[in-house]
């Protein structure tokens, strides 16, 4: 459908040109020019003494493909409010603002809107570090919170001064992973599930085979969220100069911390309404008398600052012929071409081949934010990564929020692997999942019969359960793939196979644990990975950064506009019932993306949404 619309608009433009429709053609060109302008930097006036305003009410993603306004039409016309923005755009803007003599301070407000694989604790750690570096420049950071979530306060706690609404509350009761189990419902409706897996902790299949956490799944889940929470408590205690034990005691006692308690504990500095905060900022950065629109203080939004034409130049923004390419692998790994919301093995293999051929590309940074998926597609991608290295182009891996299972598979041959302490990685294991609807069909009077030429000719049918021989065949394939996975990690990481097996078994690890286990090389974010890539390629600071996959064309934007039916993200909080239904919808979307041609998957367990 998408290709149809692209072709349609190309032909329409040609017909208009041939048959003399200058006005309509002009309109199309005007719209196209707006589309092009969104990819460049607009002329934006920045007054000296301005406060950089960062409204957190966005979803922070890795890949530029995800960072679009509320609709493709908004993207084409450069209108509307961005609902998602890339981490690198944010950290680069804050880094530039620290060096920009026109920027006096940074103001944080709003509440994050996490979606898909965005706004995880790993990317927020990089964002938080950029704010801490901004403070190191001697400039102040102010934050206003009303009912901050754990994510919100993780970032806001880096501020120099924190205001809190007197009628708000701190929604930081701790982290939890609530998983949904479908076993009883499937049994009720006559849908049976059979599985094959290798790995004690490979619990991705459990939502369909049991009705509660297994002991192994509970063990790894509690360890992981404990690591993430420990990083949160340590970060807050360090920034706010408070005792971490006292903070934990307050969390355990009150759960949702009220404003007076937050003030007394040193978690915030002042209880104020938003209007009073604006007055304080007006004293810090008085609004210009000649401003066309009266503002409470002199300011520029971080989103306008990102698009501003004149900001300090950073390393990687030169006009050098040397390119450090960032290839974003964000989302589920699926077989085939995929789409902009997942990682199609064939599509990303093609991107890697293009980087192999591009003589300007001297090094590649793989930014991985994926729970895994198709083992076959993961191998397709990894094969091209190895070939890229054979071209003497360093491949450096920067792990985002997730780089687990298939996400680790594609990472393991990197020349160096960076991750944050709260990155979710590991999960080295394999599973197969088979459903049959025989009982469901029989209940409605439906039956099946088969004629075949071989014992396994109807292996893929869902009209009956697998036989013991078929399950044994599937298990042997899973065991073989698990063995190959172990050998790949052993070969790439220099760890004996038995040692890899001990730390594999499908177990999920935090970035901190992964470093100790030698699954990664260094704690650090995307900027550190870029710097290391340039150093490894021997190009020093003489390089520019280019991001892949590249932004959509105008014709593609129009195609998405006419075919996309998704609802935009909402700033409003979602009620728990709706949230649960959306969670179920996401789980079944994941099932749709389980399209490995061999039916085998290296994927993080379902339900790894940590609140």
Structural topology:
Elements: H1 2-18, H2 22-37, E1 50-55, E2 59-61, H3 72-77, E3 84-86, H4 87-99, E4 103-109, H5 121-136, E5 140-145, H6 150-156, E6 161-164, E7 170-171, H7 183-188, E8 192-198, H8 215-240, H9 244-254, E9 256-257, H10 259-264, E10 270-271, H11 274-284, E11 299-301, H12 302-307, E12 323-330, E13 333-334, E14 343-344, H13 345-357, E15 361-370, E16 372-374, H14 375-390, E17 395-404, H15 406-409, E18 416-419, E19 424-426, E20 430-436, H16 438-443, H17 468-493, H18 497-503, E21 508-510, H19 511-516, E22 522-523, H20 526-537, E23 544-548, H21 554-563, H22 576-592, E24 601-603
Parallel strand pairs: 1-4, 1-11, 2-3, 4-5, 5-6, 6-10, 12-15, 12-23, 13-14, 15-17, 17-18, 17-19, 18-22
Antiparallel strand pairs: 7-9, 8-20, 16-24, 19-21
Helix pairs in contact: 1-21, 4-5, 5-6, 13-14
Quick overview of this protein structure:
This protein has 611 residues and is α/β, with parallel strands linked by helices.
Question: What report would you give on this structure?
Answer:
The chain is of the alpha/beta class. Helix content is 42%, strand content 18%. The chain has 22 helices and 24 strands. Strands 12, 15, 17, 18, 19, 21, 22 and 23 form an 8-stranded mixed sheet that branches. A 6-stranded parallel sheet has the order 10-6-5-4-1-11, sandwiched between helices. A two-stranded parallel sheet has the order 2-3. Helix 4 (87-99) runs parallel beside helix 5. The two termini are 37 Å apart. Residues 28-39, 67-82 and 563-581 have low confidence and may be disordered.
